[in-house]
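User: Let's play a game. I give you a shape written as tokens, and you guess the letters that built it. Ready? Here's round one.
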């Protein structure tokens, strides 16, 4: 492994990599020099070996404190993959039937038109609860029982299973409550004891206070007067009762960078990790299951479960497996460069708001992680993350992504 220590105008980049992945380093450096990266990490594991482990830049905008090997950050919806893994692990152990009615495990859920909803519908974003119509109380996201109660009472926005719309934050409480009911442990505790602990990774759903000093500060993205104004952004601005607006804005004053948010078990978007931790979570899946899952389970996780030409929340074509995103190529659409994530054909994982990413590709035994603190435009991947993905696939001998997925 080659040791890396590069000084740039945006800060120091350090780590190690296999020289075969020099292109990933080049893309990482370019992100800082040309794409406004502030602080970030990227890690690749291939065939069970850590082949790239890089970090660099600064932890905030206010001083020159460096992003170090142990810096962690909010990875937003990459957390959904962690939450989904908990459900799949219970299914692997025969404790959860993914195709059973939710009411078999959570009787109170079966009201207001949700009586026939299945566990799979919670995982593939088709259950019809992408948002909450009435205002969330102040600090509601930090109160598990309150959010679960709201979901029990909420009438679905469509008949469960008939279409899909990205469940931007509610996913963490729908799937997370199933995990809690079946396992008898909170989502964060189950993940720590059954996934993060055995894998030896830094990834928390509910951050211990002792880790708080390691957390990088978040820099939100805000559009300028010139946009880009995606269909999602336009709907959000035009109609405060639209699903996009309710999904993003009806949050009870959620402050993602606060200690309260970090401590809460927000399985839809509150996880804290770094690239090494994210790639470590996906490594067993890249290897066909490792010690956690059978190959049948990994195959099940990698299959498209729900796809649409117009996601009810994102308002773009979307493709989801059971708890994971699949490759989505919307480059042909207006502003498509911020509404895509282009992976291998069998790859599955999750993007986080602003651009963080984790995924597994069993075809090439690749486990990928990327985290950062300066959010980019859009709710899917932006050019910083995609450049790293492209460099990784190129180093592995893949030829092109022109067809919508990376191909050899």
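Assistant: Ready! My guess for every position:
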């Amino acid at each position: 492994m080659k040791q890396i220590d590069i000084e740039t105008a945006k800060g120091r980049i350090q780590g190690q990599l296999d020289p075969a992945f020099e292109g990933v380093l080049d893309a990482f450096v370019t992100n800082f020099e040309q794409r406004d990266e502030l602080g970030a990490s990227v890690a690749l594991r291939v065939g069970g070996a850590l082949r790239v482990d890089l970090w660099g830049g600064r932890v905030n905008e206010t001083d020159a404190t460096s992003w170090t090997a142990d810096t962690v950050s909010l990875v937003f919806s990459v957390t959904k993959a962690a939450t989904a893994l908990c459900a799949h692990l219970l299914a692997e152990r025969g404790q959860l039937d993914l195709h059973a009615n939710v009411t078999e495990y959570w009787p109170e859920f079966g009201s207001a038109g949700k009586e026939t909803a299945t566990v799979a519908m919670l995982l593939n974003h088709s259950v019809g609860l992408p948002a909450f119509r009435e205002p969330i109380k102040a600090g509601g996201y930090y109160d598990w029982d309150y959010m679960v109660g709201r979901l029990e009472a909420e009438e679905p926005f469509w008949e469960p299973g008939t279409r899909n719309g990205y469940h931007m934050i509610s996913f963490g409480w729908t799937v997370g409550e199933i995990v809690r009911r079946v396992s008898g442990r909170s989502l964060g505790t189950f993940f720590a004891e059954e996934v993060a602990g055995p894998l030896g990774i830094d990834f928390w759903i509910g951050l211990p206070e002792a880790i708080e000093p390691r957390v990088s500060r978040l820099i939100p993205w805000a559009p300028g007067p010139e946009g880009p104004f995606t269909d999602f952004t336009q709907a959000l601005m035009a109609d405060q009762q639209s699903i996009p607006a309710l999904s993003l804005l009806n949050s009870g004053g959620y402050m993602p960078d606060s200690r309260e948010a970090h401590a809460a078990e927000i399985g839809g978007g509150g996880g804290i990790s770094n690239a090494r931790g994210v790639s470590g979570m996906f490594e067993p899946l890249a290897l066909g299951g490792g010690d956690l899952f059978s190959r049948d389970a990994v195959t099940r996780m990698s299959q498209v479960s729900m796809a649409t030409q117009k996601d009810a929340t994102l308002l773009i074509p979307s493709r989801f497996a059971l708890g994971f995103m699949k490759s989505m190529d919307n480059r042909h659409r207006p502003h498509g460069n911020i509404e895509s994530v282009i992976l291998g054909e069998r790859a599955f994982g999750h993007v986080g708001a602003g651009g963080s990413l984790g995924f597994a590709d069993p075809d090439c035994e690749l486990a990928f992680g990327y985290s950062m603190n300066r959010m980019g435009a859009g709710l899917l991947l932006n050019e910083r993350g995609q450049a790293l993905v492209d460099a990784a696939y190129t180093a592995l001998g893949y030829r092109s992504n022109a067809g919508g997925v990376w191909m050899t």
